[in-house]
Amino acid sequence: xxxxxxxxxxxxxxxxxxxxxxxxxxxxxxxxxxxxxxxxxxxxxxxxxxxxxxxxxxxxxxxxxxxxxxxxxxxxxxxxxxxxxxxxxxxxxxxxxxxxxxxxxxxxxxxxxxxxxxxxxxxxxxxxxxxxxxxxxxxxxxxxxxxxxxxxxxxxxxxxxxxxxxxxxxxxxxxxxxxxxxxxxxxxxxxxxxxxxxxxxxxxxxxxxxxxxxxxxxxxxxxxxxxxxxxxxxxxxxxxxxxxxxxxxxxxxxxxxxxxxxxxxxxxxxxxxxxxxxxxxxxxxxxxxxxxxxxxxxxxxxxxxxxxxxxxxxxxxxxxxxxxxxxxxxxxxxxxxxxxxxxxxxxxxxxxxxxxxxxxxxxxxxxxxxxxxxxxxxxxxxxxxxxxxxxxxxxxxxxxxxxxxxxxxxxxxxxxxxxxxxxxxxxxxxxxxxxxxxxxxxxxxxxxxxxxxxxxxxxxxxxxxxxxxxxxxxxxxxxxxxxxxxxxxxxxxxxxxxxxxxxxxxxxxxxxxxxxxxxxxxxxxxxxxxxxxxxxxxxxxxxxxxxxxxxxxxxxxxxxxxxxxxxxxxxxxxxxxxxxxxxxxxxxxxxxxxxxxxxxxxxxxxxxxxxxxxxxxxxxxxxxxxxxxxxxxxxxxxxxxxxxxxxxxxxxxxxxxxxxxxxxxxxxxxxxxxxxxxxxxxxxxxxxxxxxxxxxxxxxxxxxxxxxxxxxxxxxxxxxxxxxxxxxxxxxxxxxxxxxxxxxxxxxxxxxxxxxxxxxxxxxxxxxx
Length: 769
Description:
Layout: H1 3-19, E1 33-41, H2 69-75, H3 84-92, H4 101-117, E2 124-132, E3 135-143, E4 149-157, H5 160-168, H6 183-198, E5 210-216, E6 222-229, E7 246-255, H7 259-263, E8 271-275, E9 278-282, H8 290-296, H9 307-318, E10 323-335, E11 338-349, E12 353-364, E13 367-378, E14 387-398, E15 409-421, H10 431-437, E16 439-451, E17 455-470, E18 473-490, H11 492-501, H12 506-510, E19 515-527, E20 541-551, H13 553-562, E21 573-574, E22 577-578, E23 582-594, E24 599-612, E25 662-675, E26 678-690, E27 713-723, E28 728-738, H14 755-758, E29 759-765
Parallel strand pairs: 1-3, 4-6, 7-9, 7-11
Antiparallel strand pairs: 2-3, 5-6, 8-9, 10-11, 12-13, 13-14, 14-15, 15-16, 16-17, 17-18, 18-19, 19-20, 20-23, 21-22, 23-24, 24-25, 25-26, 26-27, 27-28, 28-29
């Protein structure tokens, strides 16, 4: 019997055992296990899924929406809580949910109230139960009836200035004639008006000053709606007065200075200066340049108070790494008919410098090794919250499968320096533009030295890039990215191998030559949940990533102007070194469907196309696509699939051949919460890579429209994820289902799986998409 059937049989036996564990011993006499809860509606405007938030009781959770395994684990325990085994099973499992009629009735009332709040004032919700043995099923049926509609909207606003403001903005109102009398929309309109007025100086205004009056027409479901705006009262017993508009008078920035010290007049040991209409108070010395604060401050003396300016200031200051946190407080000053606000912005400094160490284990195609790094950071290099980082890294790996070499050790040394500016650094840009762009600029320099038994390789790079974003969207523009690849040493054995493969696979030699890569690129990412996080979103969401880059065009034009013709009739060179010329674009889309609060279905598609031209016959090795691995088709190890139906020769350097110019990934993953911090996943992956130009050794790897879909590799598998809040550790095991590298019976390992041949294990950090 093969290993994989044994595993399947073992899992099946375990499931049958746990499902046979009785939970009836935990169900008191006369009570029932809540087996299912269902909400149904007779109105398509009222979605049943919207009412799930009002359920006071829900059944036990199901793994993969199929089996209540956590409940059965709990049922496998005894009732004696003094035994550690039982306590352990209690923690791992999920206690049976006992039906509570009081909570069921509260649920019915809350759903009914929610339906009426949506404008169906005569709506009713009925509840029915179905008992079978010790289990009970509960159903809620929504009978909405006809909705109440708004016939006319009137306004009762005595304050003429606020009245004029709201009438000028009435087009954005949520209250329209003919719409349902939805209480939720009424409340949203109160929030909208409150925000609108708070951005026009009404510092003390809140939504409690807005009420509604509804007049129902006789024998009709049409209503007249009157919005009333009440005058200002600080306390109920105070006489009414008009709402005041506040102006910002003074803006004070306090650097590690307590608010009480400043407002009480105790200024001993506190220095101050004034710059750009802003006061600065600090102890010892000012750790940020005044101009930096001016660029990040939206509170201007003499302007009307606006909540938007407060939030913009918070957001801008939050981008300064030197600040640990910031807090803005206001003090009111009333003078005759005028109202003023003094703003106090308190800034607390973060640590300037930090030193970190990191040790990691590596696994490259089965070769084990270790790496260590040390990094130094300075968060305020020029007193403008510029972040300077310097990093040293060293790695060792024991290389296996090599013959004809004196040693089998792989060493790598790296040094990296980067400097990040919290603004758009470019000549001739105004301060206003830099403030509105909310961009960061970064310059990086890297040097990497690789020593292998076959060769030595150094990679030197320098880059300048910009990054900016807003509301879930992020843009990155790489203005300049230079990479210089230099091969100072190739062993004699390795040279002979390259000569032998030269005619069969020119790509292999091209991958180990000196090369310049000068690229320009743009990347756009968007996440509808507002931010990219490691955790699965608790609502339906999607993400998009688009990247495009080009390399070598400017060098090509410059070389043609200088040389006029390529060297040796093959390629133009810069400083006697060839340079790459290509264009590359990628697109990724992922959609997250939340089934319930414990289960989600995620779909992902990734497409990439890269075209070498002009000075290049092939893409640089670093820019070629590969398939397989923890984030691709997980039935294959990294760089072991494709292109197309190419099988490979099993050589240790064959990973170079498993690359292509076109990539397609299709993934479907079902994610479920198991227990504690452990999540599970079941997945199906499909994909491959292909070449644009025919390679002599890989004719089956050439992309053709009439056959590429037949060359899609398919895999399936299971995964575990440890969600540590700040980090997700992922383990995935994938099995090949369709293998395009073979024909006949071997093409479909899903029919006759061989664990040793068809299984791939992956360890990774974060979700695959």
